[in-house]
Design a protein that fits this description.
583 residues; alpha/beta; Peroxisomal Thiolase, Chain A, domain 1; Alpha-Beta Plaits; 2 domains; 17 strands; globular
Length: 583
């Protein structure tokens, strides 16, 4: 993990390129992976609606939260406390934002094919955007006893600090609160510190859970919430925003480090900048000129005179005035950067799909663009029928993304921007680029005879759950890449199994048999599959048997150099224990 000092000190002349190598998220509508996210985006699905039935029993007495539409997460009371070394009382006293962010950070590292224990003692930074802790009010209303765990469980600094503590990370560890721009501001901070050399890898997160109604009631009285519970960015029928929940995490590191480590690359982070709107008509009023200036500055510094973006993920939360101001700011920025541009800038906002995720919105927008890069397509903006009449008429290079369409980039890399604006005036903007072609995709067929797929977990039940997950997801990537990632890109837990397989069909049969028979429940290792590997190299078989019997967390290395790390390998299956004031 050590980095070259010479490379770092040369950053002013040759800015360090950064790569997004891992991501994980939980979004409304049980959208927890890229496949489901793309289904929602590509089909213009709105996942918001009434409070879900599983949430109502978790509310405090007299709560009126069910009166509000929103984008709701499932199972926010569930958490694998033993996995993260927490007892039940400590877990119950901890803000579920802390708990779920721990699990999401773990999955983001797995998505990057980084075994978390390899980061111990490194200058890895943690930067988390958050703006509220409803669990404090809810716990008090439900009569949860104040105990010695409350301070650590309910202070927002612990959102970042608890991750650093658990993973034993020594880089900067900060929680950022600029309201709705919090998570994108966290990414700006992470990028600056990565480029300065003060951290070598960053986990950047955003989190927003809605557990009480005070913020919603205030927004309603201020006329900010949509009365019909629909978010319509840039549309003439827009009438306010819908609150939404979300948890998301990115793993960011220098591009050359990512290439050296063989990490999958979702996007290149060209630049990230933040600013404040200064004095406006009111504390929460937007400033067109300051938004424009931020976009221009971010673009000029990040692209060294390159063309303007072809897709903009706007802040656009469904405010007729605010969305019109943002549109004009993007248009003016485009005309400054690329005066001859007459078309080709699509503008959208995933708030139409999930509601306004507030402090998690910026990172969610980045994740959306990463998925768009991978698909080479621009999704439609849900609920859009006619452009707002408050947007200046006349020819514009901008247009609202209205249908699913191809995104080619005219042979060069795809480039996109993301904006987030806090209601106190704090603004952030980032420029992303599609990953290099050599890191973009694996071969469609990289099968090899007798390759080894391995799985491990903390206990037999979780190992069985892992096998079920693999059965659902194993066809998402070439077998050689899946096998390589399972061996070298995952933490090894005490309960283990290994399958010698030659095809996806072979792996499916092995998984089905394993699920039917069940894992061994003896000394913690599972050897049956490895001992029946007819024709396997004896030296390799010996390595596998040693690994299966070991208690070391070290991955299984040295079997084969073929294959490469993939973000599509299944992630760890956490045990969903309930921890809530009433439980």
């Amino acid at each position: 993990m050590a980095s070259s000092p010479n490379r770092r000190t040369a950053r002013l002349e040759d800015p360090l390129e950064l790569a997004i190598v891992g991501m994980a998220f939980r979004l409304p509508g049980q959208v927890n992976d890229r496949t489901r996210l793309w289904q929602v985006l590509a089909n213009g699905v709105d996942t918001t609606g009434p409070l879900t039935a599983d949430r109502i029993p978790l509310l405090g007495a007299g709560s009126d939260l069910a009166e509000f539409a929103g984008g709701w997460l499932a199972a926010v009371d569930r958490f694998d406390a033993p996995f993260f070394g927490m007892n039940g009382r400590e877990a119950r006293s901890a803000d579920p934002q802390q708990r779920l962010l721990l699990e999401t950070a773990w999955h983001a590292l797995e998505d990057a094919a980084i075994a978390p224990e390899t980061l111990r003692g490194t200058r890895t930074g943690v930067f988390v955007g958050s703006h509220a802790c409803d669990y404090l009010s809810l716990s008090s209303a439900c009569g949860l006893e104040v105990d010695g765990y409350w301070n650590a469980g309910l202070h927002s600094n612990m959102l970042a600090n608890r991750i650093s503590h658990f993973f034993d990370l020594t880089g900067p560890s900060l929680t950022v609160n600029t309201a709705c721009s919090s998570s994108l501001e966290a990414l700006v901070l992470a990028a600056d510190l990565l480029r300065s050399g003060r951290c070598e890898l960053a986990i950047v997160g955003g989190v927003n859970l809605i557990l009480t109604s005070e913020i919603a009631r205030s927004a309603l009285r201020a006329g900010l919430l949509s009365p019909d519970g629909k978010c319509r960015p840039f549309d003439d029928a827009a009438n306010g925003f819908v609150r939404g929940e979300g948890i998301a995490a990115l793993v960011v590191r220098p591009l050359e480090d990512a290439r050296a480590a063989g990490n999958p690359i979702h996007a290149i982070l060209r630049n990230a900048m933040s600013a404040h709107a200064g004095r406006a008509a009111s504390l929460s009023s937007p400033r067109l000129d300051r938004q424009r200036d931020l976009i221009v500055a971010t673009h000029r510094e990040g692209t060294q005179g390159g063309a303007f973006v072809s897709l903009m993920e706007a802040h656009a939360a469904g405010s007729r005035i605010g969305d019109a101001v943002e549109w004009e700011a993007i248009e003016e920025a485009c005309r400054i950067i690329e005066p001859a541009r007459r078309s080709g800038v699509s503008v959208g906002s995933l708030k139409a799909n999930f509601g306004h995720l507030e402090s998690a919105a910026g990172i969610a927008g980045v994740i959306k663009l990463c998925v768009c890069f991978a698909k080479g397509q621009i999704p439609p903006t849900a609920h859009h029928s006619r452009r707002s009449s408050l947007i200046r008429a006349g020819h514009s290079p901008l247009r609202v993304a209205e249908r699913l369409e191809s995104w080619t980039g005219d042979g060069g890399p795809l480039r996109a921007g993301v904006s987030s604006f806090g209601f106190g005036g704090a603004m952030a903007h980032v420029i992303l680029e599609s990953p290099p072609h050599e890191a973009e995709s694996a071969a469609t067929d990289r099968e090899e005879p007798a390759t080894w797929v391995v799985m491990s977990a903390r206990d037999p039940d979780r190992l069985a759950a892992a096998a079920r997950r693999w059965l659902l997801e194993h066809e998402r990537a070439p077998l050689g890449d899946l096998a390589f990632t399972s061996r070298e890109g995952r933490t090894a837990f005490p309960h283990r199994t290994a399958f010698p397989v030659a095809s996806h069909d072979d792996l499916r049969r092995r998984l089905e048999e394993f699920i039917r028979v069940g894992p061994a429940r003896g000394d913690g290792s599972v050897i049956g599959a490895a001992t029946t590997a007819g024709g396997a190299d004896p030296a390799v078989l010996s390595l596998v048997r040693v690994w299966l019997s070991s208690r070391s967390a070290e991955p299984l290395r040295g079997i084969s150099a073929s294959g490469r790390m993939t973000s599509d390998a299944p992630k760890y299956e956490f045990a969903p224990h309930a921890y809530w004031p009433q439980s």
